[in-house]
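Student: Hello, beginner here. Can you help me understand the protein record under this note? Any guidance would be welcome.
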Amino acid sequence: MVSRRGVRIILMCAIIVVVAFAFMGAPTAKAAWQQVAEFLSLQGKPVPSSANVLSEHETEVLDSMTPQQQAQLLMERSINHFKGANEEIAKRVDSWRGKIKLDDSLNRLFTTALNSDDLRVRAAAIEVDIAARDLGKNDFTVNELEHQAQSGEQGVRVNALWDLALLGNRGVEPKRAEQALLQSIHDDNENIRYWAVEGLAYLETVGPLLQVFHDDRSPNIRERAACGLAQSGMLSEKQRRSAVPTLLNYADDASLDDTTKKWVFQALRDITGQSLPHDAAAWRNWYRASDGNWKPVTRDHE
């Protein structure tokens, strides 16, 4: 909330601007004010503030920074789509393993990046998390994690499932990671199922997520599966689109409760970008009219 002093400062600045414009003359003042108003507006297309490239100064000082400082700076720049940030992360991340921690600052950046609308930014976040968790990208690590995922205590199993998902997403034994997660989606322990479903969203597993969304007895798990299908995780736009026909079937499935159906419509909206009512017929009519040929609403970062 802006303080009273802050409001007074803003008003004074506005008055100064108006007075300055008055001396410019009416046409000039009007054009200048329209330009300012345009940049002050929250509406319209994204307006770049700069060339969005990693500055020479930053690249020059990176080597003098600690791994923690490097990770924090580059993660922030990746989130803001600075060209060169992801390349620097890729070049340095293996040397960060075991040398960085997800402290409050880096964890906030990690969480923000993991929810980015750009999958490359999410991938950068995963790489940073793998380094912070000191995970080796090799068969030995996967062997240990598979064992922990099935026979450890609850906390150990949860961490192992998450770690397997991260490694699998980055190309380290993805099939073995998927199999370990699939073995856990029917576990009696709800927390284990939750993290198994969370992890599946980081692999190419639309089918199992749809099954869990429809069949799991826990509303928390069903909601998590819906989020994985709609927005979270690392599924591509094409993979999420492939879930739409099944979600349309779920929209009027009498076996689903009202809350789950609400999540169906929310997932459809998130995947397609269409603002339609929570009505199965309306969604079917839209899909039939589009003949399956539609593109989600996306934002161009360039």
About this structure: The mean pLDDT is 88.
